[in-house]
Specification:
171 residues; alpha+beta; PH-domain like; four-stranded antiparallel beta sheet; 6 helices; 8 strands; 32% helix; 33% strand; globular
């Protein structure tokens, strides 16, 4: 089946592996992500930022920061890891080969995502920094820009965040 997936998703794989741009990094949250995350959020909890990318050897992943918790969802796992914001030690985002690589240290344990959109990573960095979490963001010019010609329009970061807030608040 993975052989057939390469034909179906060939354009995305080319963009990701050769151009270093993850075409799925800045999309609105999927319904499956919203449903899973909503079950873990407390009533009145508000989304501050989210990022989507890839987890090594695990597939797609989404990290969500609310005013109270940091939620980690891996597409292959049914469980969501929920961490209190005060347990976060450090966050960093650096430009890597496949977009931004972000790392978070929670109580001495490191987790990472790669192929993350730079602007969503910046929004996460700013949200964490605003609540006193040690956070760093490094940006460099992308390796290539051909992807912009055939990738299609992406929603703005503000659109992504406002859509996620509305959908997560809906009962």
């Amino acid at each position: 089946m993975s052989f057939l997936n390469s034909f179906i998703h060939g354009g995305k794989l080319t963009e990701f592996l050769i151009e270093g741009h993850n075409p799925d990094a800045r999309l609105k949250l999927s319904s499956a992500d919203v449903d899973a995350l909503r079950q873990q959020m407390q009533p009145g909890e508000v989304l501050k930022a989210y990022i989507a990318g890839r987890v090594v050897m695990s597939g797609a992943g989404v990290w969500v920061l609310t005013d109270q918790h940091f939620l980690i969802r891996h597409a292959v796992q049914s469980a969501i890891t929920r961490v209190e914001v005060r347990q976060i030690d450090r966050f960093e985002a650096v430009r890597g080969r496949y977009g931004h690589t972000v790392r978070i240290t929670v109580q001495g344990r490191l987790q990472s995502l790669y192929g993350v959109d730079a602007q969503l990573a910046m929004a996460m960095h700013q949200a964490l920094q605003s609540i006193g979490i040690t956070s760093s963001f490094e940006d460099k010019p992308p390796r290539g820009t051909l992807w912009a010609a055939y990738s299609g329009p992406h929603p703005s970061v503000e659109d992504c965040l406002s859509d996620a807030r509305q959908r997560l608040m809906a009962a």
